[in-house]
């Protein structure tokens, strides 16, 4: 204590420094410092700061001089090396030493820090973080200002030379480059942006060097090895550079991303068009590996993928259509072949997208778009919709026959046919699912629905379904793929009706069991169906039925009326059918016939061997002209039958050529022919495709599609307007297509006409200021 | 020469109504009304006849009479003459519906 007091006023910088300096120098040189020396230094710094008012700046100045002096020597030692690797090695070793000391030397000068900061208490010194230390900053800044700025160019150049050598396949000590980078990173005393020196110098140099390297190499390689090899090269180099970057560049600094961008730019973007030019050929040749590679490369480049998508679309459309056109002869005749061709195409294109583009959603979308075009193409065959409709004169565009053929194919799978018998239940199920898959791409699903329902009606009425469980599954599947609910509900209702009818039949038979008619009733089967779900036109055909049947009609009607008050029945004899036995000179045969055919044939029961004229047959059957012609035609010229049930006078090539006087008679030589021999017994089906509507209403049928579309479009427009109140033309069109897509694709023209119609009928109006805006009028 | 062995007769039933369309919801009476279509209750949507012989969906009319107990078409006081019966429901209620058990 006494000594301390005695010292008071006598402690000055000049007095203490000579004792402090050797320790400082030892520390700088990384020489051994004893515990005593180390502690003395603390003590000395403390005293100078405490007693000498001018001490702290002086200490700082002296320290700086010594540091600079040390650095100058270090620089000399580094610059002695002329060879790159040796230079780097020397620099790194000097730097490491120095940098290590940056952690130690500041410690004794903690007191100085606070003194310089204008504070006198030592207690706050703890708060001064090592990194922010003035002495440390002094050390680093000095290093930066002298040695670094003098030789950084050489350092960088040397480091980059090494990297360059590595790119050319020479091995060297990567620690040299890493060491240099670390010095760049640690050197910075800017606490806000610690990576500033690194970024401005090292990273920049590294990226420049990379760019320069590939700017020379890449075109050379491309020239020498062609695009396909170049893609492999580029992909390889991108990966290599990424790994190299991870090694030599600072992670978490964004450097890797910058490097990556530079590599992509110089290796890929520069040659984008050249590479992309190969795409269509590769797609055509199904070179999935190469496409995969191209996809990987182009996915990194701005606007690299779009041309590939375009190429894919173009390929699908042109290859798809070319295939269809080439097979036109078979597929236009045969629904099965057509659908299988379509599925085959779909699977082929999907495989391509999977193998080449990893099912990337953008490529899947392109596939869907193009496939849709193939499916809805009208080149091979088209469905002619009528060009004129009642009231509103509309010319429709031809449409693809696809939906009709899909429905036919479904029918072949669901009906008892050679095809459905050949297949297992699982196979049928997977084929039906395939149909639904294609159906997804069909624009005009309403056509499919119409045909599908017609086929289902025939299967249910004629009881020709192969598998009723599958039939009902199909209804649910249609619901799942988004077919309109009212449509699917009607189908479901049809199945219900059939079941209800079975029950009804039982009851009816029971009710007349006791009467005399019961024997005939056993042969009778009635189907009473919901007109809302089943009926198409409201046409009604008159026909005179065989007496025994005619008698039953009122019986059934009475029975039904008792069961269900408030319902009326309408007989659809064009859908009724039955089996009759035909006995002639050749034997006895069971014929499956329509009710019309039955009515015609029964005309001969009273005059077996007579020849009856067309005119008299009309009187006997009461059938309308077109129906009678058609029915007679099916009996004199049933397809693929060697001997027909009826014979006629004269030769005709179509039912139109029958005249009033054409004579018909029963062919007593009729017999089914098997293996060239007439049979004595057998069952023959003369129904063919069951007629669901009359000749007249058949024309109305296609008109019905158009008419329904008009109504649906109007309905959808009103729905949208009701919701939006005010909507632009463009948005209305988009929402319309979205709303109607599960039924049909409304044409621009159709939309326009319906808009006009709705405006005219005051459902909506155009905005006064902007004619492209529509306003809902309640 | 020709003898009948079997006959499958097809008939369509529809509600015995003067007008095919329900004047309240503007949907054909043979179809379910819009509400039932939306709620998938087609089977329950039957027709109702008034003493005036006008007919509507039962569901539409039951809502209508809450506000105005007159026939929307002739303005006569509404009184029900008859109501359609849903056959499927009837069978189910009598326990005779075979549809669901069938495989």
TrEMBL record, chain A:
- Pfam families, A to Z: Cullin, Cullin_AB, Cullin_Nedd8
- Positions of the Cullin family profile domain: 401-636
GO CC annotation terms, alphabetical = cullin-RING ubiquitin ligase complex; nucleus
Task: Name the pathway.
Answer: Protein modification; protein ubiquitination
Alphabetical UniProt keywords: Isopeptide bond, Nucleus, Phosphoprotein, Ubl conjugation, Ubl conjugation pathway
| InterPro entries documented for this protein | Cullin, Cullin-like_AB, Cullin_CS, Cullin_homology, Cullin_homology_sf, Cullin_N, Cullin_neddylation_domain, Cullin_repeat-like_dom_sf
Q: Name one GO biological process term.
A: protein ubiquitination
What are the subcellular locations of this protein?
A: Nucleus
Q: Which SMART domains match?
A: CULLIN (SM00182), Cullin_Nedd8 (SM00884)
- Give the GO molecular function terms: ubiquitin protein ligase binding
* Family to which this protein belongs: Belongs to the cullin family.
Q: What is the official name of this protein in its record?
A: Cullin-5
Annotated source species: Petrolisthes cinctipes (Flat porcelain crab)
Automatic annotation (TrEMBL), chain B:
- Which Pfam families does this one have? zf-rbx1
Q: What is its EC number?
A: 2.3.2.27, 2.3.2.32
Tell me which InterPro entries the record gives.
RING-box_E3_Ubiquitin_Ligase, Znf_RING, Znf_RING/FYVE/PHD, Znf_RING_H2
Alphabetically list the UniProt keywords.
Acetylation, Cytoplasm, Metal-binding, Nucleus, Transferase, Ubl conjugation pathway, Zinc, Zinc-finger
The metabolic or biological pathway listed in the UniProt record of this protein is:
Protein modification; protein ubiquitination
Keyword Cytoplasm listed:
yes
Q: For this UniProt entry, what's an example GO CC term?
A: nucleus
- Subunit architecture: Catalytic component of multiple cullin-5-RING E3 ubiquitin-protein ligase complexes (ECS complexes, also named CRL5 complexes) composed of CUL5, Elongin BC (ELOB and ELOC), RNF7/RBX2 and a variable SOCS box domain-containing protein as substrate-specific recognition component. Also interacts (with lower preference) with CUL1, CUL2, CUL3, CUL4A and CUL4B; additional evidence is however required to confirm this result in vivo. Interacts with UBE2F. Interacts with CSNK2B, the interaction is not affected by phosphorylation by CK2.
**Family, per the entry?**
Belongs to the RING-box family.
Write the protein's name. RING-box protein 2
Please tell me the species this chain comes from.
Petrolisthes cinctipes (Flat porcelain crab)
């Amino acid at each position: 204590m006494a000594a301390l007091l005695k010292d008071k006023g006598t402690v000055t910088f000049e007095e203490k420094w000579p004792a402090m300096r050797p320790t400082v120098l030892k520390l700088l040189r990384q020489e051994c410092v004893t515990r005593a020396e180390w502690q003395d230094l603390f003590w000395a710094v403390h005293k100078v700061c405490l007693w000498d008012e001018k001490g702290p700046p002086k200490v700082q100045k002296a320290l700086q001089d010594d540091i600079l002096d040390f650095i100058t020597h270090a620089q000399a030692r580094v610059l002695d090396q002329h060879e790159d690797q040796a230079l780097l090695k020397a620099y790194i070793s000097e730097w490491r030493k120095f940098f290590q000391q940056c952690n130690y030397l500041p410690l004794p000068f903690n007191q100085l820090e606070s003194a310089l900061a204008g504070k006198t208490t030592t207690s706050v010194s703890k708060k001064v973080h090592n990194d922010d230390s003035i002495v440390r900053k002094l050390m680093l800044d000095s290093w930066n200002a002298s040695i670094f700025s003098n030789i950084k160019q050489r350092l960088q150049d040397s480091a980059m030379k090494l990297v360059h050598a590595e790119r050319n396949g020479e091995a060297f000590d990567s620690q040299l480059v890493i060491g240099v980078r670390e010095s760049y990173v640690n050197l910075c005393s800017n606490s806000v942006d610690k990576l500033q020196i690194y970024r401005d110098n090292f990273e920049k140099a590294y990226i420049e060097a990379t760019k320069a390297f590939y700017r020379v190499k890449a075109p050379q390689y491309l020239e020498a090895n062609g695009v396909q090899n170049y893609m492999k090269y580029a992909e390889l180099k991108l990966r290599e550079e990424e790994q190299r970057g991870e090694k030599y560049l600072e992670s978490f600094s964004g450097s890797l991303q910058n490097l990556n961008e530079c590599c992509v730019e110089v290796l890929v973007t520069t040659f984008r068009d050249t590479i992309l030019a190969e795409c269509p050929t590769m797609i055509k040749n199904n070179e999935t590996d190469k496409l995969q590679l191209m996809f990987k490369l182009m996915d990194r480049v701005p606007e690299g993928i779009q041309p590939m998508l375009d190429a894919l679309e173009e390929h699908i459309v042109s290859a798809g259509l070319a295939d269809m056109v080439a097979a036109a002869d078979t597929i236009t005749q045969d629904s099965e072949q057509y659908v299988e061709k379509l599925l085959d195409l779909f699977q082929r294109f999907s495989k391509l997208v999977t193998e080449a583009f990893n099912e990337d959603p953008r490529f899947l979308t392109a596939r869907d778009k193009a496939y849709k075009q193939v499916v809805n193409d009208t080149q091979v065959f088209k469905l002619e919709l009528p060009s004129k409709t009642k009231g509103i004169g509309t010319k429709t565009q031809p449409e693809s026959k696809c939906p009709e053929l899909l429905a036919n194919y479904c029918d072949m799978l669901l009906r008892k046919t050679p095809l459905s018998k050949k297949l297992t239940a699982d196979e049928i199920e997977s084929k039906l699912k395939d149909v639904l898959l294609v159906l997804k791409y069909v624009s005009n699903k309403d056509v499919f629905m119409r045909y599908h329902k017609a086929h289902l009606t025939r299967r249910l009425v004629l009881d020709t379904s192969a598998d009723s469980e599958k039939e009902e599954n199909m209804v649910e599947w249609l619901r799942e793929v988004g077919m309109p609910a009212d449509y699917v509900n009607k189908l479901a209702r049809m199945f219900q009706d059939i079941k209800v009818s079975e029950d009804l039949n039982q009851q009816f038979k029971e009710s007349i069991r006791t009467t005399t008619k019961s024997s005939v009733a056993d042969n009778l089967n009635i189907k009473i169906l919901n007109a809302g779900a089943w009926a198409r036109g409201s046409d009604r055909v008159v026909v005179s039925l065989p007496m025994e049947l005619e008698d039953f009609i009122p019986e059934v009607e009475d029975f039904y009326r008792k069961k269900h008050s408030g319902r009326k029945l309408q007989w659809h004899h064009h859908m009724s059918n039955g089996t009759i036995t035909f006995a002639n000179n050749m034997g006895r045969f069971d014929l499956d016939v329509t009710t019309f055919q039955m009515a015609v044939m029964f005309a001969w029961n009273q005059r077996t061997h007579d020849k009856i004229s067309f005119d008299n047959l009309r009187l006997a059957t009461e059938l309308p002209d077109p129906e009678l012609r058609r029915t007679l035609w099916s009996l004199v010229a049933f397809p693929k039958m060697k001997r027909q049930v009826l014979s006629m006078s004269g030769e005709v090539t179509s039912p139109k050529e029958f005249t009033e006087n054409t004579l018909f008679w029963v062919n007593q030589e009729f017999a089914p022919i098997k293996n060239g021999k007439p049979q004595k017994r057998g069952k023959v089906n003369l129904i063919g495709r069951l007629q669901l509507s009359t000749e007249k209403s058949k024309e109305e049928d296609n008109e019905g599609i158009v008419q329904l579309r008009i109504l649906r479009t109007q309905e959808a427009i009103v729905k949208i307007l009701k919701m939006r109140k005010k909507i632009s033309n463009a948005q209305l069109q988009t929402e319309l297509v979205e709303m109607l897509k599960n039924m049909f694709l409304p044409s621009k023209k159709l939309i326009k006409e319906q808009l006009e119609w709705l405006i005219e009928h005051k459902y909506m109006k155009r905005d006064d200021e902007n004619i492209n805006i529509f306003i809902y009028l309640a | 020469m020709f003898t009948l062995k079997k006959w499958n007769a097809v008939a369509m039933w529809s509600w015995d109504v003067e007008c095919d369309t329900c004047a309240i919801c503007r949907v054909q009476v043979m179809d379910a009304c819009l509400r039932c279509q939306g709620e998938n209750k087609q089977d329950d949507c039957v027709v109702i006849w008034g003493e005036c012989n006008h007919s509507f969906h039962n569901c539409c009319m039951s809502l209508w009479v809450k506000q105005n107990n007159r026939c929307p078409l002739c303005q006569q006081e509404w009184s029900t003459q008859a109501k359609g019966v849903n056959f499927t429901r009837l069978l189910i209620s009598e326990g005779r519906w075979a549809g669901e058990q069938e495989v």
